[in-house]
Design a protein that fits this description.
Elements: E1 9-13, E2 19-23, E3 28-29, H1 36-46, E4 59-65, H2 71-82, E5 88-95, H3 101-104, H4 120-127, E6 132-137, E7 142-148, E8 161-166, H5 180-188, E9 190-198, H6 203-211, E10 215-219, E11 228-232, E12 242-243, H7 246-254
Parallel strand pairs: 4-5, 4-8, 5-7, 8-9
Antiparallel strand pairs: 1-2, 2-3, 6-7, 9-11, 10-11, 10-12
Bound molecules: S-adenosylmethionine.
């Protein structure tokens, strides 16, 4: 088990005013310095279509790689309450180096939510984590299953994610979470209709996804970034986006072209 006592986790204001954290362990910010909230909304809710899908299903399972500040969970809860969504959601997330409640208490995310009180939940979560799987009934319709440990050790026999928020640090800073084996494992944890999104457009990530058997597309990125990646198991889910040649990328990955 890890703790973050040896590392500095510093609050930083991004350009849209919303907070992010700088991690000295990874020498990287948790979000795009141009706008934490704007990036999360765009990459995980708008581009995936999830935002328009919160009201038309009985049940949804989401898997996040890297819980970080909990911002994606907060945005999801806020969207669900705004839409009065009846959908039952199981939100799985994995975090190897949880932030302390002392850092989390100063986040300014309440200023950006329609339901500011939701942010109280984040301190409670960080203050009550044990190693391994933790379960929190966040609302009547939303359960958080937060694994405190490394993604490499995360297991679940019955998880079938409809959406995967791949929110690791960049491939250069956090290579363990961008390998073909990681995307293979994510595939095994997915439902047939799964959609995976990430802010990154790295060629190595495209290669690793293709090698693991995902259909892969590029689309316009957040906040002026040219591209980001969407991936799915069913090619129809990507019909509005520009697909890559998966066979070629998989072969290049196999040959070590991206190393
Ligand atoms: C970019 S941040 C996540 C941002 C987060 N989704 C948010 O909204 O704040 C990446 C997270 O992945 C975690 N992480 C990095 N490598 C990991 C690993 N191998 N297993 C589990 N967590 C890991 C880091 O501690 C960090 O919290």
């Amino acid at each position: 088990m890890t703790d973050d006592s040896s590392e500095e986790s510093k609050l930083v204001e991004t350009r849209d005013g919303s907070h992010t954290v700088y991690s000295s362990r990874f020498d990287q910010h948790y979000h795009n310095p141009n706008g934490a909230i704007a990036e999360s909304r765009y990459v995980f809710f708008e581009k995936t279509g999830l935002l328009n899908n919160l009201n038309n299903r009985d049940q949804l399972t989401i898997l996040e790689v890297g819980f970080g500040t909990g911002l994606n969970l907060l945005l999801l809860m806020d969207y669900c309450l705004n839409q009065d969504s009846p959908t039952k959601i199981d939100y799985y997330s994995v975090e190897g180096f949880p932030l302390s409640p002392e850092v989390a208490k100063d986040f300014n995310y309440s200023e950006y939510l329609s339901h500011p009180n939701l942010t109280n939940q984040i301190g409670t979560i960080f203050g009550n984590l044990s190693g391994g799987m933790n379960h929190f009934e966040i609302t009547e319709n939303l359960t958080l299953h937060l694994f405190y440990g490394m993604f490499e050790d995360f297991k679940s026999d019955n998880l079938q994610a409809n959406y995967i928020f791949h929110d690791a640090f960049s491939p250069d800073a956090n290579p363990d979470l961008w390998s073909g084996e990681v995307f293979q494992k994510l595939k095994q944890l997915s439902a047939n209709d799964a959609m995976l999104s990430t802010y990154s457009a790295a060629s190595s990530a495209q290669g690793a996804l293709a090698w693991a058997g995902w259909k892969v597309a590029k689309t316009r990125g957040a906040l002026g970034k040219r591209e980001m990646i969407l991936a799915a198991l069913d090619a129809d889910r990507l019909s509005d986006h520009k697909r890559i040649n998966e066979e070629r990328y998989a072969q290049r990955y196999e040959e070590g072209d991206f190393d």
